[in-house]
Amino acid sequence: MLTSITLNGVSYAFGANTVLNQIDLHIEPGSVVALLGPSGCGKSTLLRLLAGLTEPANGEIHFADRLVAKSGWSLPPQARDIGMVFQDYALWPHMTVAQNVMFPLKMRNVARSERENRVAQALSRVGLSEFAGRKPAGLSGGQQQRVALARAIVAEPRVLLFDEPLSNLDSELRESLCQEMATLLRQLGTTAVYVTHDRREAEILADRIVHLSAGSIAADRLISTSGEYA
Ligand code: ADP
Ligand code: MG
């Protein structure tokens, strides 16, 4: 099921510091939108609002017809049907790769008989089928991020959220994983918001680039499939 995302007049402040100022944004169902901008411009804050990790001071957020946040109220992350990938992977070190990936299925009470298949499919999609029994510490950074990606997609969420997932990787790996994620996102067709400060990453991955500057949308453009500006 494809979900649109709509923000109406969304603002956020840390004390006297206004971090997001009256953001209006509509994201089409199934599109991949990159939120691009320099450090400190409010990208992570906007993503955390979409995830339900924090609530707006003003404005409303809808996923399709469903209100998920308004001033002082927020539907919690586990009730939003989202998958998230962070810069630091955020894997559980004591669990194996397969247990990490299975976790969202347990949270959603997916039948035990179905879990193994779903985990195997997700690990296959990210090229990690042989690593199911390993612990995260035994994997490279790129492999750990693939595990995090498998965990984000395994429950087939309606929205995928990424916060600079490639920033900790070296440039060669960043490039190849970026291309793979672009392919995967096309295959899945899930509505996705991808935060990055790297313009090239945004151009490879996204259908549309929204430039954030000091808490406001400074530019908003569509990208053709060849990676050039439309
Ligand atoms: P980005 O992800 O684009 O680098 P952030 O959304 O993390 O930006 O931060 C936006 C602004 O909010 C920055 O000015 C930052 O200093 C401030 N900020 C972020 N987190 C906090 C916090 N926990 N407390 C106070 N200010 C914060
Ligand atoms: Mg950030």
UniProtKB/TrEMBL annotation:
<keyword id="KW-0408">Iron</keyword>
<keyword id="KW-0813">Transport</keyword>
<keyword id="KW-0547">Nucleotide-binding</keyword>
<dbReference type="GO" id="GO:0015408">
    <property type="term" value="F:ABC-type ferric iron transporter activity"/>
</dbReference>
<dbReference type="InterPro" id="IPR003439">
    <property type="entry name" value="ABC_transporter-like_ATP-bd"/>
</dbReference>
<dbReference type="InterPro" id="IPR015853">
    <property type="entry name" value="ABC_transpr_FbpC"/>
</dbReference>
<dbReference type="InterPro" id="IPR050093">
    <property type="entry name" value="ABC_SmlMolc_Importer"/>
</dbReference>
<dbReference type="GO" id="GO:0005524">
    <property type="term" value="F:ATP binding"/>
</dbReference>
<dbReference type="Pfam" id="PF00005">
    <property type="entry name" value="ABC_tran"/>
</dbReference>
<keyword id="KW-1003">Cell membrane</keyword>
<keyword id="KW-0067">ATP-binding</keyword>
<keyword id="KW-0410">Iron transport</keyword>
<protein>
    <submittedName>
        <fullName>ABC transporter ATP-binding protein</fullName>
    </submittedName>
</protein>
<dbReference type="GO" id="GO:0016020">
    <property type="term" value="C:membrane"/>
</dbReference>
<dbReference type="InterPro" id="IPR003593">
    <property type="entry name" value="AAA+_ATPase"/>
</dbReference>
<dbReference type="GO" id="GO:0016887">
    <property type="term" value="F:ATP hydrolysis activity"/>
</dbReference>
<keyword id="KW-0472">Membrane</keyword>
<dbReference type="GO" id="GO:0015697">
    <property type="term" value="P:quaternary ammonium group transport"/>
</dbReference>
<keyword id="KW-0406">Ion transport</keyword>
<feature type="domain" description="ABC transporter">
    <location>
        <begin position="5"/>
        <end position="226"/>
    </location>
</feature>
<dbReference type="InterPro" id="IPR027417">
    <property type="entry name" value="P-loop_NTPase"/>
</dbReference>
<dbReference type="InterPro" id="IPR017871">
    <property type="entry name" value="ABC_transporter-like_CS"/>
</dbReference>
